[in-house]
C-alpha cells in the first residue's frame, strides 16, 4: 500500500494502472470492520494488486482529504491513471459493489 497519494498518482501514470484509494480514521468503527475483513479478503487483495493501492488517515492529512472532497469515512475511490476519479463509495456500502468495479477496471 502506498501512503502518499502523489506517489500513487505518479506510479499510476507510469504503469497505466488505476489507483485504489482508501481513506480512513482510527475513530471509525466501520473502517475497523473493513480493515479486519474486506481489506484482508483474498479476492480483494488479488484485484488490488492489479491497481496502485493507496491509503491515508484523514485525521493526519486533512488537507488531502479536503483536496479530494472526502467528508465521510470509510471512503473508497478508484482513480484513473490520469488522476480523474471514476468511482467512489463512502460510509455504508457493500464490499461486493467495490469488488465488482475493481474487477472491471483492472482487467
Which shape, going by the Cα principal axes?
A: globular
* Class by SSE composition: alpha+beta
Number of beta strands: 4
Helix % is: 40-55%
How far apart are the first and last residues' alpha carbons, in Å? 20 Å
Give the biggest sheet: 4 strands, mixed
**Assembly status:** single chain
Structural overview:
The protein has helices spanning 5-15, 29-36, 42-48, 62-68, 95-105, and strands at 19-24, 52-57, 75-79, 85-90. It has 107 residues and is α+β, with helices and mostly antiparallel strands. Strands 2-1-3-4 form a 4-stranded mixed β-sheet. The two termini are 20 Å apart. The mean pLDDT is 95.
Keywords, separated by commas or semicolons:
four-stranded mixed beta sheet, alpha+beta, 21% strand, single chain, 107 residues, 5 helices, globular
Q: Layout of SSEs?
A:
Elements: H1 5-15, E1 19-24, H2 29-36, H3 42-48, E2 52-57, H4 62-68, E3 75-79, E4 85-90, H5 95-105
Parallel strand pairs: 1-2
Antiparallel strand pairs: 1-3, 3-4
